[in-house]
TrEMBL record:
<dbReference type="GO" id="GO:0005615">
    <property type="term" value="C:extracellular space"/>
</dbReference>
<keyword id="KW-0393">Immunoglobulin domain</keyword>
<feature type="transmembrane region" description="Helical">
    <location>
        <begin position="314"/>
        <end position="337"/>
    </location>
</feature>
<dbReference type="InterPro" id="IPR037055">
    <property type="entry name" value="MHC_I-like_Ag-recog_sf"/>
</dbReference>
<keyword id="KW-1133">Transmembrane helix</keyword>
<dbReference type="InterPro" id="IPR013783">
    <property type="entry name" value="Ig-like_fold"/>
</dbReference>
<feature type="compositionally biased region" description="Polar residues">
    <location>
        <begin position="377"/>
        <end position="388"/>
    </location>
</feature>
<feature type="region of interest" description="Disordered">
    <location>
        <begin position="377"/>
        <end position="406"/>
    </location>
</feature>
<dbReference type="GO" id="GO:0009897">
    <property type="term" value="C:external side of plasma membrane"/>
</dbReference>
<dbReference type="InterPro" id="IPR050208">
    <property type="entry name" value="MHC_class-I_related"/>
</dbReference>
<dbReference type="InterPro" id="IPR011162">
    <property type="entry name" value="MHC_I/II-like_Ag-recog"/>
</dbReference>
<dbReference type="Pfam" id="PF07654">
    <property type="entry name" value="C1-set"/>
</dbReference>
<dbReference type="InterPro" id="IPR003006">
    <property type="entry name" value="Ig/MHC_CS"/>
</dbReference>
<dbReference type="InterPro" id="IPR003597">
    <property type="entry name" value="Ig_C1-set"/>
</dbReference>
<keyword id="KW-0812">Transmembrane</keyword>
<comment type="similarity">
    <text>Belongs to the MHC class I family.</text>
</comment>
<protein>
    <submittedName>
        <fullName>Major histocompatibility complex class I-related gene protein-like isoform X3</fullName>
    </submittedName>
</protein>
């Protein structure tokens, strides 16, 4: 048992002290153009740590840098070759999105989307050595997984029947699968390492510790709440988070859900984990967070309160108070009317009382009440702009010649 505890502790510390970096490329093709600003029939971009570094679209037809250090460090022929590569891929996607529409028995009435993502992820160790974590090479159609490369077996995985013809065809070209594996584990990592050095200053910011919160809101299931642990504002990205019940870590089998680490607008990160529990649960729940900026982990205990569980009660109370106020106002007006201090209808030239003045618009109050309230809202749209790294033309050529269709 002692050995297991030491092993887990070592694993935890090594994960927190390492630094994760990723390089990926995303290509998106539409079956037909759409009349929306910033949305093009074909786009391609490169991402370093989820930050755009290059971009290409079917209108400009030019691969451009999105970071100053990319423009400064990489020669002109890098961008020229990159532009030619992206143009070839644009044609490849145009052919294959039509092939997939035929396979899926879709017509051109609706817009259909073919997307390809490939890249690699590494851990930068405290001694600056790079450890390969995983490679990604996957296709999706209309947002659903279509085909993915299994780096371990060097085989393509087809989650849908329509992808089987492509799987058989590509698995039949072993040199392509060998190259794909080599690209993910070696060439991609080499470029990632180079970009890490080029953009070192831009990608380094002051380390920031996480702020941790524990709260609960009413769940969709009656009689339950969703307990959430949130850590935000931390940098670098790597973090450990657990939800514990009476000191025991909860897992996915217990219903724990999380979207993983997500970026904030200020280049820090956040993570949320949640689990559904009975509203009347009186057990002890805690959020555990560890980060490289912390001398010791943070423990935040849930106070047992639900943020919005009493919302209905509050609405009822407010409604009752409003009814009481309205009844009181009507009663007062009736009393004044009976005493002859206010008039009903146009009965002559009696001088307006203070109440008449405000109700008839002689004061600021009436102007405010009668003034229409407008709220200007703007819909903000953003187009992904790219990132990129040098890609070997051999791989591009093989992919271009090996269409998804038969």
């Amino acid at each position: 048992m002692y050995f297991v505890v030491v092993l887990l502790l070592f694993r935890t510390l090594s994960m927190v002290n390492s630094e994760t970096w990723s390089l990926s490329y995303i290509y998106t093709a539409l079956s037909k153009p759409v009349e929306l600003p910033g949305i093009h029939e074909f786009t391609a971009m490169g991402l370093l740590n989820d930050k755009q570094i290059d971009y290409y679209d079917s209108v400009a037809k030019k691969k451009i840098p999105k970071q100053d250090w990319m423009r400064e460090k990489l020669p002109a022929d890098y961008w020229e070759k990159g532009t030619q590569s992206r143009k070839s891929k644009e044609q490849w996607f145009k052919v294959n999105v039509n092939i997939l529409m035929d396979r899926m028995r879709h017509n051109n009435t609706d817009v259909h989307i073919l997307q390809w993502k490939h890249g690699c992820e590494i851990d930068k160790q405290p001694d600056d050595t790079l450890k390969f974590i995983k490679g990604t090479d996957q296709y999706s159609y209309d947002g659903d997984d279509f085909l993915a490369f299994d780096d371990a077996t060097m085989q393509w995985v087809a989650p849908v029947d329509q992808a089987l013809p492509t799987k058989r065809k590509w698995d039949g070209v072993q040199i392509l699968n060998q190259y794909t594996k080599g690209y993910l584990e070696k060439e991609c990592v080499d470029w990632l390492s180079k970009f890490m050095a080029y953009g070192d200053k831009e990608f380094r910011r002051a380390d920031s510790p996480p702020k941790v919160y524990a709260f609960a809101k009413k769940a969709k299931t009656a009689g339950h709440v969703r307990l959430t642990c949130m850590a935000t504002g931390f940098y670098p990205k790597d973090v450990l988070m657990y939800i514990k019940k009476n000191g025991v870590q909860l897992t996915k089998q217990d219903g724990v859900q999380s979207d993983g680490v997500l970026p904030n607008d200020d280049e820090t990160y956040q993570i949320r984990m949640s689990v559904q529990i009975p509203e009347a649960d009186k057990e002890t729940y805690e959020c555990f967070v560890n980060h490289t900026t912390l001398k010791e982990p943070i423990w935040v205990k849930w106070d047992g309160k639900c943020c919005d569980c009493s919302q209905v009660t509050v609405v009822v109370i407010v409604a009752v108070v409003l009814v009481v106020l309205i009844v009181a106002l009507v009663t007062s007006l009736l009393v004044l009317w009976k005493k002859g201090k206010i008039c009903a209808g146009n009965t002559g030239a009696l001088p307006p009382t203070e109440i008449q003045g405000s109700l008839n618009g002689n004061g600021n109050g009436a102007a405010i009440l009668s003034m229409p309230v407008t709220t200007d809202g703007a819909i903000s749209t953003s187009s992904d702009s790219g990132q990129g790294s040098k890609e070997r033309l051999e791989r591009e050529a093989m992919l271009t010649n090996e269409a998804i269709g038969e």
